[in-house]
Write a structure and sequence with these properties.
alpha+beta; 3-stranded mixed β-sheet; 3-stranded antiparallel β-sheet; 6 strands
Length: 139
């Protein structure tokens, strides 16, 4: 299975009119996989029912939210880890840094070595080419 991509035009930031247009590779995304479908596919690979898997995933998400709200890093083995991060305004002295300095919370994901290794061998296919890399008529 390959990841399908296409050429995406982008202008130069800060240049009136966009400047010289350059093209970058961009993934053509299919429909997102919903939690229920994810649970159903996992259930087919095990002796659990879809409802059982769905309940475990819901509990997993609840715990993930709780740990993130506590500022903790959640390490998930071969998947990677989730970490909460703060974005804040710069202040002139440590004393000025307070609750009002914080502008937002962000969630970071750091893939594991195993996941990075698996993604490093993914095959790509440009939209409009056949699986052997030759041009095709398809859009």
């Amino acid at each position: 299975m390959s990841i399908l991509f296409k050429a995406v035009p982008k202008g130069q930031p800060g240049v009136v009119g966009g400047g010289t247009i350059k093209y970058y590779a961009g993934i053509i995304r299919e429909q997102p996989v919903k939690l229920r479908k994810f649970a159903s596919e996992i259930a087919k690979m095990s002796s659990l029912t879809t409802s059982d898997v769905f309940a475990v995933l819901e509990s997993f998400l609840e715990r993930l939210h709780t740990y993130m709200e506590e500022g903790r890093i959640i390490q998930l083995g071969d998947l990677g880890s989730f970490s909460p991060y703060l974005a804040s305004k710069a202040e002139d002295s440590p004393r000025e840094v307070d609750l009002h300095s914080i502008t937002k919370m962000r969630v970071g994901f750091r893939p594991s070595k195993e996941l990075r290794k698996r993604l490093s061998v993914v095959e790509f296919l440009k939209q409009g080419t056949d699986t052997d890399g030759t041009e095709s008529i398809a859009p």
